[in-house]
Every structure is written in C-alpha cells, then in structure tokens.
Write a structure and sequence with these properties.
The structure holds 2 protein chains of 2 kinds. Chain A folds into 3 domains: 2-132, Alpha-helical ferredoxin (Fumarate Reductase Iron-sulfur Protein, Chain B, domain 2, Orthogonal Bundle), CATH 1.10.1060; 137-298, no CATH class; 305-426, Rossmann fold, CATH 3.40.50. Chain A has 21 helices and 8 strands. Chain A has helices spanning 2-16, 21-27, 41-46, 53-68, 70-74, 86-97, 105-109, 116-129, 135-147, 155-173, 196-199, 203-214, 232-235, 238-255, 266-274, 276-280, 291-300, 332-340, 370-387, 397-410, 419-426, and strands at residues 189-191, 219-221, 259-262, 287-290, 314-317, 343-345, 391-393, 415-417. In chain A, helix 10 (155-173) crosses helix 12, helix 12 (203-214) crosses helix 21 and helix 19 packs across helix 20 (397-410). Chain B has a two-stranded antiparallel sheet with strand order 1-2. The chains are: A alpha/beta, B mainly alpha.
Chain lengths: 430, 115
C-alpha cells in the first residue's frame, strides 16, 4: 500500500506545487458548456460521452478539488471531488493516454479559452510520476535516451545510409562534387532528421539535400545528434524531455551553427522550438526554425528556381496540429505549394481548424489503442476523399505514416508526400 | 501491494482466411518465432497484396535474416543494396512501407518511433 501512496504523493505534487498560475486557473475554469465535444475526433466518431474533452479535464480537476481545496478536502461529494485511487488512475490512463491526440482542437473551440490539451498533458504527467506509461510509448523514449535516436540506429548504419544517399544526389544533380556534409562546424544551417527517414523513408532526405544543393546553402548534419523527435513530450516527462532537448542544444553550440533547422516533424518542432526553452530554462543563442519556413524563405528570396508545371497532379494539404494550430506555421506551406505545384485544393476544415490525422499525441506509437486510432481516421479519410486530390502533402513524418495507413485502410488511392519532396520535384537546376 | 496497471502490449486474435494469429494492436505477430512463409502470405493478403512476387520474397527474407542475426530491422539502404530492388519500387511492393508493411509481413515486432 505504501508503494501506491508514495506514487500518489508524487502525482499530487503536480497539482499542489504548480510551476505557475496557469494550471490552477484552467482547472477552476470549465463552465461545462460542452462546445468542446464537437471538436474531438474521439467523440465525433463514437458519440461516447467519456471522450468529451471537458470530461477528460474533469478527471484532473476532480483530483485537484479533493486534495487542494477546502470544500473538496472536507466535503468531497459536494464538489464531485475524487480520490486518486487505482480505479481513477486506470480511467485516466485509458482516456488521457488512450483517447487524446493532443491535437488542441478543443482548446481552440473552448468558450473561455482553457488550454485543454495542456491539462491532458498535466494529467499524463501525473501518471508518468506514478510510472504508469503505455509500454510502447516509453520504449520509444528509452530508445532515444539510451542510443541517441528513437529508432536505435547505430552511427555506422547512419553514415553508410548518408553516403549511399550522397551517391544518389551526385546522380540526381549530375555533379560529382555534390555532397552531404557531416559534422561540419561554423555552418549556416544544422539540419535535423526524423530517424524514420534514414531507417525506412529516405526520399525526404534526398529531397532536402537536393534543395540545399540548389540553394547553395552552407549546411551540415550531425552524426552524433540528428534526431528531431522528442517522445518525452508525449509522456509529459519534462526531465527526460529536457535531456533530449539539451543534446540537440549542445550539438548546435558545439558545431557553432547559426541556425538549427527542424525537419518536417510536428511534435519535434514543438518540443524543441516552442517547449524547449521551457524544458531547458534558457533562451537559445541561435535561431531555430522549421524546414517549412526555410523552404518559404528560399522561394521568397529567389534562392530556388521552381517549375510548378512539374507537379501537375491535384494536391491537397494536411496541416499537422503541432506545427499549425499550436505553432502558428500556417501560411508558409501554402506559399510554398503555390510556387511548387500547379493544382492545389484545400481540405475542409483546414489550417488552424484542421482535424488531426489521428496519429498525434503519441497515438501512432501506442499499439494499445490502435483500434481507436483507426476509427478516428474515418474523419481524415472523408476529408481527403472530398478534395478529389491524388496527392496529400504534409510537413510531418508522423502524419505521413498515419495518412499512409488511412490510404490503405480506406482505399483512397492517394500518394502521401512531404513538402520538401514536392519542392525537390519542381526544382530547375541551373 | 499496489501493482501498476501499466498498459502493456495487449494481444488480440486476428483471423485471415480461417487461420487465427495472435497479434499486437497494430497487427504485428506476438510471437515472431512462429512465423513461416504461410504467415507472410496471409499477412500480405490482409494488406491487399494478393501475390508475393520474387522481389517481395527477397525483401522479406532479407529483413527476416537481419532480424534473426542482429535483432533489428535492417536499414532501407541495406534492403535496396542486398536485394537490388529500387527504393521507390519498395513502396509500391509494400504500400504501408518497409515497417508496417514489409517488417510486419516478415513477422518482426513493431519497430519504435514514428512508424
């Protein structure tokens, strides 16, 4: 029993010793208007009331009232305050880990502006304090912590892959001096990758190296720390998230790069660029930007010559939640597509109101909740089908994988591409 | 004594053509050692691959061998270089990609990461 109490006390500290006033303000603010229900893919596809975002908030706030307020401590039933017991932790695990993609659509629709996704993350943090974390999710964090990248790619395999891709680049641009620079100091851009690119999906690497070549960029990759992902963001383990963010920070500093450019990865961009300074408690002495913004910059500065007639198929765009709704990178990808593709159609809804692919919040990695994830996918499948597009572009590798599964399951017959792949196909080399 | 109810990989049964397999939530075989060529054929069929060609088998067998020898799925570079199949063709042969497609058909556990 002590074991549980120790863990419970750790979890309760998340609520009793908050870092700022935001958490407590939000926990006291829900007016139960119910507007969030229709925002949530889990609720929309099942009509199961347990999935309503406000109900997820209620799980956390009922514990707050029980342990941190006068009435909740003495008259718990009056305020629907709940004991943090095994039953409640199971419910929290099922709903906060297993039924939320942290897409933040409910946050946007909340009538009084509660950051609901943040509260879900704080609920996850309580579970993490109790060491209750879906095994498949933690194993990806562990891979990153112990091997330096979340797919445990050995350095030699990584460099062999890049040397293979370098040969492809020489052929592609017909220049024997074209190269993929590794560990070069004092460059303008230190680029990062999602490990799934070198491991299984290197077309996006080929695309970016061609773009760097065409833009005549001074750039490099690090073989020591190139992983843009940070799965500890999904488990809300801020200590582990800081360890991972610190590694990238140190590598940018060591190589003395002017800019750190984040690969097409929604949560990775968020974890390093927007959450990172909070994890590390410092501002960055270098610039951090996403490759989406870099592509837009190259085009606007005339550093890339593109022929959009090279991309003739009808293209639609999927907006990754962390990059778009949470990060505010909305117009850049549209600007890029306007210059790189001749036919483009928006999904409905799109931009900051877009639906998640269904694989966010760590869902793609959590086999435990696979069935729900693919049930949610109905919404995205229908959105894509209605556009009539034959290519879906998305600047996030996690979304790419989910969209490939959606294509297969719902027989959409679409091709899924990253933004850089579309741009690379349109490049005219001088 | 409190025991954490940590959600671990829950296994379910999946039926293909009247045969039952124990798999994880993503359809990866729970016991990679019961894998055989018939499993590969049925898993592929489940993904919409009606017939496994010589190229499919070259990829599957190499992935399998790499996993048995090194305990992990091979890099896509090795798959291309050993089997001689072109990169873009691999994605056509296995529409779900090398991980959820080829590795699953080869009976491997699901790899970590964004796959």
């Amino acid at each position: 029993m002590n074991n549980f109490n120790d863990k419970k006390n750790k979890a309760l500290k998340v609520l009793s010793e908050p870092k700022d006033s935001k958490l407590i303000t939000y926990l006291n603010s829900c007016v139960h208007c119910g507007l969030c229900a229709e925002s949530c893919m889990y609720y929309l596809t099942t009509k199961d009331e347990r999935y309503i975002p406000a109900k997820k908030v209620e799980l956390v706030s009922s514990i707050y009232r029980r342990y941190c307020t006068f009435t909740g401590k003495h008259f718990p039933k009056l305020t629907n305050a709940r004991e943090l017991d095994e039953e409640l932790t199971e419910e929290m695990t099922d709903l906060l880990f297993g039924a939320c993609t942290l897409c933040g659509r409910c946050t946007k629709h909340c009538s009084i502006g509660i950051d609901i996704a943040y509260l879900v993350r704080e609920g996850r943090k309580m579970l993490t304090e109790m060491e209750i974390i879906p095994a498949s999710l933690q194993s990806t964090v562990n891979a990153a912590l112990t091997t330096g990248n979340n797919m445990s790619i050995p350095t030699e395999e990584f460099t062999d892959t890049l040397s293979w891709l370098e040969d492809e680049l020489k052929d592609e641009v017909n220049d024997p001096n074209a190269s993929i620079p590794l560990n070069v100091p004092d460059v303008n851009v230190l680029y990062t990758l999602n490990p799934r690119e070198p491991k299984f999906f290197p077309l996006s690497i080929s695309a970016m190296v061609k773009i760097f070549y065409a833009a005549k960029e001074s750039w490099s990759l690090s073989t020591k720390m190139y992983d843009v992902t940070n799965y500890a963001y999904f488990t809300s383990n801020n200590g582990e998230a800081a360890t991972i963010a610190q590694r990238l920070y140190d590598e940018v500093r060591k190589l003395n790069a002017k800019r750190c450019v984040l690969a097409e990865c929604g949560h990775g961009s968020r974890a390093f660029r927007w959450e990172g300074p909070n994890y590390l408690m410092r501002t960055y002495p270098f610039e951090v930007l996403t490759s989406v913004e870099l592509l837009a910059e190259y085009i606007s500065q005339g550093r890339l010559k593109l022929d959009k007639e090279k991309n003739k198929e009808l293209i639609t765009l999927h907006d990754p939640c962390n990059l778009v709704r949470e990060g505010g990178v909305v117009d850049e990808q549209r600007y890029v597509l306007k210059h790189a593709a001749s036919r483009f159609v928006e999904m409905t809804p799109c931009g900051t109101d877009n639906f998640c692919c269904g694989g966010g919040g760590g869902q793609l990695a959590m086999s435990e909740y696979n069935e729900r994830r693919m049930k949610n996918a109905e919404i995205k499948a229908e959105q894509i089908r209605k556009t009539g597009a034959s290519i879906v572009v998305t600047p996030c590798h996690n979304c790419v994988d989910q969209l490939m599964q959606i294509d297969n399951k719902f027989k959409l017959g679409v091709k899924v591409m990253t933004l850089s792949e579309v741009v690379a196909d349109a490049i005219i080399l001088e | 004594m409190f025991e954490n109810k940590v959600p671990t990989k829950l296994f379910t049964n999946m039926e293909i053509d009247g045969k039952e397999f124990q798999v994880d939530g993503d359809g990866f075989l729970s016991d990679p050692y019961i894998w055989n060529e018939e499993v590969a054929r049925l898993f592929a069929k489940y993904d919409g691959i009606e017939e496994l060609t010589e190229k499919h088998w070259a990829i599957i067998n190499f992935i399998r061998k790499n996993w048995e020898e090194k305990g992990m799925a091979p890099m896509i570079r090795s798959i291309c270089q050993i089997t001689g199949v072109k990169l873009k063709e691999i994605y056509q042969l296995f529409p779900l990609g090398p991980a959820r497609g080829a590795c699953r058909v080869a009976g491997l556990p699901k790899p970590d990461g964004c796959v």
